[in-house]
Amino acid sequence: MTNMITAHVVYATITGNNEDIADIVTEHLEDAGVKVTETEISQTDPSVFEDVDICVVCPYTYDEGALPEEGLDFYEDLSDEKLSGKVFGVAGSGDTFYEEYYNVSVDKFEEAFKKTGATIGADSVKINLEPDEDDIKKLDAFTEKLIEKAKSLQ
Ligand SMILES: Cc1cc2nc3c(=O)[nH]c(=O)nc-3n(C[C@H](O)[C@H](O)[C@H](O)COP(=O)(O)O)c2cc1C
Questions:
Q1: Is 63 in the pocket of ligand 1 (CB under 6 A)?
Q2: What's the distance, CA 73 to chain centroid?
Q3: Which residues form the Flavodoxin-like domain (predicted)?
Q4: Among 27, 55, 71, 131, which residue has the least CB neighbours within 10 Å?
Q5: How do residues 75-96 score in pLDDT, each as one tens digit?
Q6: Which CATH number fits domain 6-153: 3.40.50.360, 3.30.750.24, 3.40.50.450, 3.40.50.2300?
Q7: Taking the complete model, does pTM exceed 0.90, yes or no?
Q8: Is the beta carbon of 105 within 6 A of some atom in ligand 1?
Q9: What residues does each domain of the chain span?
């Protein structure tokens, strides 16, 4: 028997879109039998990722490419974590109206995770505003890939 896979999903939100994304990912992980915890970024220390197999961040982008203000400590500390052997994924909602700054926080979190030595489990997902039906399919495929990668590392 293989060990139960575990995950932690962290989101930053002002108007709820990224919480919705985190909920969709969390629900899919639960349905797949993964033991998952979901928390808000300002209430979370990135050391929680030390205790799980799959690490997920769902961030919004603000003020032309800015990270969530309440997540700056989390972001700084994440880069210093040692997460080799773990799988990570980033999925966030921004607004295409901001053109070259569209979902920049997603790219920034992907870079921070790469510094930790964690393995990317699926391409990052960028969503425009609220997740629609098509986005939910993308999030389901993203989540499946994270699970497959985590299984391959067990
Ligand atoms: C003042 C302001 C600045 C924003 N700047 C950006 C930006 O630079 N890039 C981007 O992709 N989205 C930007 N957005 C859009 C939000 O990221 C988008 O609405 C997102 O869905 C919010 O997520 P939330 O519902 O989880 O808070 C901005 C929104 C506001 C109100």
A1: yes
A2: 16
A3: 7-147
A4: 27
A5: 999 999 999 999 999 999 999 9
A6: 3.40.50.360
A7: yes
A8: no
A9: 6-153
